[in-house]
Amino acid sequence: MQTEITIFTTIISGVTVFVLGQIFLKMVIEPVQNLKTTISKVAHCLTNDYIVLMNADVLSKKESQETYKKLRNLGAQLYADLHVVPLYHFFRNIFGLPSFNNLVEASDKLFGISNKMYSKQAAKYDYLDLYYLQICKNLRIHVPEKMQLSEAELKDSIKQLRGL
C-alpha cells in the first residue's frame, strides 16, 4: 500500500512539474524570445535598409515603401511584444532586456524614422541619424563605428537648421 502511494505521489509530482514548466515556457520564455527576435529584426532592418532610409525620395517608390512599411510594422511589433511579457519589470532583469521606457521610445522612433523618410525639411538627415542612434542605444544594438555620431552634435545641427 505504501509503495502505491509513493508511485502515485511521484507521478502527480512529475505531471505537476511538467505542467508548470510548460506554463512558464508558454507565458514567459516564448514571449521574451519573440521580443528578442523583434529586436534582432530591428537591428537587421536598420543596418540593411539604411541606404533606403537616407535616399527614400530618390530610390524607387516600391523599394522605399517596403522599408517604410517594414519600419512601421517593426515599431508596432516591438510595442506589442513588450506587452505580452508578464511582469516585464521583473523578468527584464533576468533576461537582460531593455527597460520598458526604452522599448516604448525605440518603437516611437521607428515610427519617427518612417515619417521622416519623405520629409523635405533641411534637418531630415540629422533627424534620421538621431533616431537611428537613439533606437540603437535604447535596444542595445551595436552601432557601426562610422555611424557613431554624438547625439548632442546632431541635436545642435537640427537646431541650427531649424533656425535657417
Describe the structure.
With 164 residues, the chain is an all-alpha fold. It has one domain (29-163). The chain contains 7 helices and no strands. The chain has helices at residues 2-48, 50-54, 61-84, 88-95, 100-116, 124-139, 151-163. Helix 1 runs antiparallel to helix 3, helix 3 (61-84) packs antiparallel against helix 5 (100-116) and helix 6 runs antiparallel to helix 7. It is elongated and about 85 Å long. The protein starts with a helix and ends with a helix. 26% of the residues are buried. The model has no long low-confidence stretch (mean pLDDT 88).
Helix segment tally: 7
Low-pLDDT parts are none
Mind summarizing the main beta sheet?
Answer: none
User: What portion of residues is helical?
Assistant: over 70%
What's the total number of strands? 0
The average pLDDT is: 88
Q: What portion of residues belong to β-strands?
A: under 5%
